[in-house]
Amino acid sequence: MLNYGLEAALGSMLLIAVDGVIAKYMLRRFSMNAYVPMVLAIGLLPMLAAQYLYGGSYNLVLYLKYIIPGSIFLAAGYILYYKALSQAEVSKVTIFSNIQPLIIFIFGLFFLNEGISAIPLLGGMLIFIGSTLGIYEKGIKIDRRLVPAVFANVSWGIYWIFMAGSVNQSNYVLPLLVARAIASVIVMIFYLSIKSPAHQKTTAPRPNSKSAVHKALAITVLPLTMLAVLIGSFVDSGINLTFSLAISLSFAVLGSAIIAFAPMITAVIGRIAFKDELKPYQILGLVMAVIGAALVAI
User: Fold this and answer.
1) Is the dihedral of CA 243, 248, 249, 253 positive or negative?
2) What is the largest CA-CA distance in the chain?
3) Confidence class for position 298, pLDDT limits 50, 70, 90
């Protein structure tokens, strides 16, 4: 029998694993002030489609007490996360990603009463420990550039606590849609109220680059750039949709353990891509996390 909660959590984990890399890439082409509002706004489209196709009945007024404060924490998380990502390496920002699922894990364990047996619970703990070892780097110091990443993940963890009180099996999409719409407005107002950082500019062609070759390249690159924006926005939205589905299926605790695996995948891929050697404790962490994932799937 298929475990749809597990499948949803795995989908969320895989999307998270690539999201940071996509975001870092896009911040080289757009300012934060432009890209972050775009991600939130365009990311509403998959949610609208999901609501149309799968959304059921939902008493929105009853759950606004969860959705509105949740949207504030969601917006704060985006502002802080992209602040950290714009000024530090994605591998270092990733180190703090497990704060968010840890908050959800602890909350779900003590407050959601999901009735988890001992073996999957042990597996979840192994994933957390193994993932922490897998992304740990000796000599990494918390500096001012990385502080926003810590608070971003705390903020998103609190957001999911509010969402856990608002999603249900009859409709796990609409509360996310409303929260994201409100967060989009908050983020847009925030960025409109501040000046764009001087070091963050789009890579537009220089005024003196008027040759036919440059024009042809611009015509080719622009559609590809906009496609990348769509992909980044849809990936970001997909993370929320899949994890919300996991919560609605009473899989918040083990689902949070599964998504804790994502930062290690990102880190390992990065090390393989740059031919960096994995340390023995990182290999141990990978093995522990894989065993933990197997126990969760039992």
Assistant:
1) positive
2) 67
3) low
